[in-house]
Structures are given as C-alpha cells and as structure tokens.
C-alpha cells in the first residue's frame, strides 16, 4: 500500500498535475488510478484513439474519480501527441508541473514522493526516472535503449541525460510550453527522446531519480520494432546535425559548468582545510591528477552494447557504433586530447617527415590516435574470442623465448602501453602452452573487465592484482620463475599510490619519470629479462623480442647506478618503437609531468592474489589518462 505524501503535496511550492497517455491499455489503468487517488493530484487521462473496450473503461473511470479529466483524440496520433495534449492542457489550467505516468503498470508509483521532492528542490529542472530493471525486461529492448543513450550523449556532448526513454517524468510546464510553441516535435515513441534533448539544449537542467521498472507478464506494448526504430534513427540524425549547429554553445556550456565545479571544489577544500593551513604544506599550483586517479569513461551497459554488437554483427557493426563513441570522447576529453597532441608533436619534432603524421600535427592526427586505441581494443576482443590465431602474428624471435622456457627457468618480460601485448597473452591462454603471469592494477577499468570476462572467462587467468611491490609479491613471483613460467611487468607507468619511487630518463627529448619497482623486482627474481613489444605493422601484428639482461641482480654497491642504467636502456628502446608507431602509444596523460607534482588518490594496499582477478583493459580513452593494462604479454 502506498503512503500518501499529503504533507509533501500541501507544502509544495509547485502546482502539479498527473498526465497519463493511454492507447488500448485496459489491463492496468484501473489499478494505476486507484493507487494514484491517495496523492490528491488532478489527473489528465488522454485517450489516444483507443478501441471501444478501452474507451468505455476510461469513460467509466473518469466518472468514478472526479479528479480525473478525460481528454479524447478521435484517432490514434501517438504517445508523443497524447503527452503533449496533456501537458499543454495542464499548463492552460494553471499547473506549474506535470508528472507523466504510463498507463501499462510499468512504473513504481511508490517513487512519486521522491520525484516530487526533487521537483520541489529544483522547480526549474525536469525530473526523470532512471530505470532499474528486473529480469522481466526484454534484452533486445534493453540493448536498444543503450544505443539511444549513446546518441543522446553525443547530441548533448554530456552524460547529464542518463536515460532518455523513461516515461516517468516531472515536466516544468513553463519551459515545456515555450519549446512546444517554438518547435513541432515528433508525436510517436521518439517524442520522449526529442523533448529531453531539446529541453537540455534550451538550458533546462535534467535530474534523475532511480526507480524500479517492470514489464508485466502479458503486458501490451505499442512499440513497433521496424517503424519506431526507423523513426528513432531519423530523429537521431536530425538531432546530431542540430548538435553541430549548437556545438560552440554546448562546448562553452560544458566549459562553464566545469569551471563552476572547480570553483566549488576549491571553496569546499578551503573551508575543510582552513584550520590546518599552518601545518600543511601548500600544493604546487602546477599539480595534476596521477594517471591512476581518474575513473573509467563509459558505462557498463554501453560497453556491453559494443561487445554484443561485435558478437552478432562482427567488426563492421561494432565499428559503426564504436567510432562515433570515440569521436565523442575525442570532443569532450580535453586533457586526454591535449596529451595525445603533445606526444605526437614531440614525435614529429624528432621525425619531421614521419609518414604517419601530418605536417604540422593537428586534430586529425589526434583523432587517428584515439581511433587506433579503439581498433586495438577491438583486436583484443578478437584475440579473446579466438578469432586471431598465433599464425596471424609475426614473431621472428619466438625460438629465443622458447629456448629459455625449455631450460626450465622462467623469465621476466618488461612491457609497456605501446602496442597490443594483450593479444599475445590471449593467444597463449588459448594454446595452453605457456603460462604467463601478469602484474595488474585493474580497479580503473572495471566495466570493460566485466564485459571481457563474459566474452571469455579465461581473460582473468594468471593475473596478479597488486598496487605496490612487497616481500609477499617477490616470493610469489620467485616461485613462478622457478616453475618455468613468465612474469610480465609494465615499466612505463609510475606507482599508483607511492610518490618518489621513480627514476628519470631521457624520453622524446625530455626527462620523464619511470617507476623503480619493475626493475627492482626483476633484479630480485634473478632471471633473464626480455623486452617485448607487439605492434601492428602493415596490417599484421609483429612481436619484437629483445634480450634485456641475463639478470638485473648485483651487489648492493652501485645498485642505484645499475638501476639508472636499466631505466635508461628501457626508455631508449621504448622511444625507438614509439617513434616507429606513434599512433600505438596508449599513455593518454602527461607522461613527462614531474612525479612530485602529481596528486594520487589514496587506495588500500592490495596484496598479491594468485587466484583469478580481473583484466585491466580500457575500451575508450579517459579524460585525463588511460586505465592500467599491465597484463599485456
């Protein structure tokens, strides 16, 4: 039984009515109105050309409930037309807001008090339900919704609209009426999408309230799979070009909101820390976020949609969806984009006639950089789905590694975030011939990891989750080496939670910080060390393997000098291959930033875990960095 929010309604500064469109929904409408009665809200019930049975039922219900006004369409015009009829009538009758409720019983009416509370707090905003589905939701409808959400994110250049198709909404009627007077909107199922995007364009804030949504067994749906999908496709085409016309304004709005958020953050930090000013050292004005401190961009269901499109449509369908996604992140990821341009310009300064870069380097090169990352992610999925075989990868020095493993003693592979070594690990897992243990930090790519594990559970085999080197890590990996296994460590990203443990080495004309940990660990393991890069060259992947050292272990005296020499050599070879294939450099952050200028996000120490964890690949460039993918092998 719902609890009537009588105190909430009586004290509300807004005047709210209900709007319920109905076309042949007779099964649940009586129960819906019975539950709504206790809210003491006037209701506009719109009969959108229903059949005789439903029409007579609605007339009877309107006579039963004096707070219900029945509005009639002589023929079926569509859900959008019915909603607009109700909204405009409510506005003419003096209401300030209208709560749209569907007539099919999908919406959880117990969430109405929360919706009203949000509307009271933000009377100029549109409050929309954010659906939380149970198992009753048809999977095809669910994936289709996320495709629409993606396009709405592109059309608004933001993630503010978290769901664009939920019909459980509180409309601010003044802003809505202005829009309806200025433009003719669609009248069918695409209405919910269009009005939300266009209200956003007009500056209306869109807020969301989580709400449970069910699909009743035997429920009637008027969604026409072909016709409505064609309408929605046409709508998104129109909205996309509408976005392009508004692009300067949308980017300016985004920048202003980001600046406002930063000001608020500074005020909060100043307020919180004012009492500690005397004892706390000031942070450098040039500080920046460490690469590990940013969240993964892209929702789980968005990534899931890409994976499903790959599963059912192959490369062409996946790329058709993925490329616009990457373009969106390219447009909105300012810091990531600037990091890309900075790196490519450094390469061109050293290689003025580089065949893969324009002269001068510009936004097209950076976009190609982003697209190369997306293609590499798709190739990783290919490998885990066993669609790329070892025979399709050129590995001229394969025997060198094979001979090492046949000796009975393992080795360390020093790798980087250049190229696509994940592909090699996937193939080795499929063949079950070589056991590859990878040190990973996975907390920054949880959504992609989750989807990848669904595609192939083996993607989590032999990953060792660790955030910091310690004796337990060393003991675990020592056993792996003695068992004749490979240990893979990335040497190009500094520690995620410890400042200062770096060595500086020349890289692309300027000293850059490299982590000490991988080289110290390789010395403790006292085994052969190899460098490995897997680069896409002339349409095929090619693995470059180089013997780095028989061992990095040595006497304590001169230890730091040996460490510096090892880092210098690693940096030299990394630069060599990065200059050959600059678009396969996937460190999308300020690689040269001094370590003491970076702000790290505190995180609990994670002990090494020999049990399966998660993979650490990211499908799309992040705002300020790339997620850790140290599992490459």
Strand order of the largest sheet: 3-2-1-4-6-5-7
% residues in beta strands: 15-25%
Task: Report the count of strand segments.
Answer: 18
Structural class: alpha/beta
Number of helices, counting only DSSP H or I runs of 4 residues or more:
19
* Stretches with pLDDT under 50, minimum 5 residues: 1-12, 267-286, 603-633
Radius of gyration, in Å, reads: 29 Å
| Largest sheet descriptor | 7 strands, mixed
Helix content: 40-55%
Which word captures the global form?
elongated
What is the residue-mean pLDDT, rounded to a whole number? 78
The N- to C-terminal Cα distance equals 58 Å
Key features?
single chain; 633 residues; alpha/beta; 7-stranded mixed beta sheet; 18 strands; elongated; disordered N terminus; disordered C terminus
Element layout with pairings:
Layout: H1 6-11, E1 16-22, H2 29-36, E2 42-48, H3 52-64, E3 68-73, H4 79-92, E4 97-100, H5 112-121, E5 126-133, H6 139-156, E6 169-172, H7 173-182, H8 191-201, E7 206-213, H9 225-245, H10 247-273, E8 288-289, H11 300-332, H12 334-350, H13 363-384, E9 393-394, H14 398-406, E10 411-415, H15 422-431, E11 436-440, H16 446-455, E12 463-465, H17 471-482, E13 486-490, E14 502-507, E15 510-515, H18 517-525, E16 529-537, E17 540-549, H19 559-580, E18 598-599
Helix pairs in contact: 4-7, 6-8, 6-9, 6-11, 11-13, 11-16, 12-13, 13-15
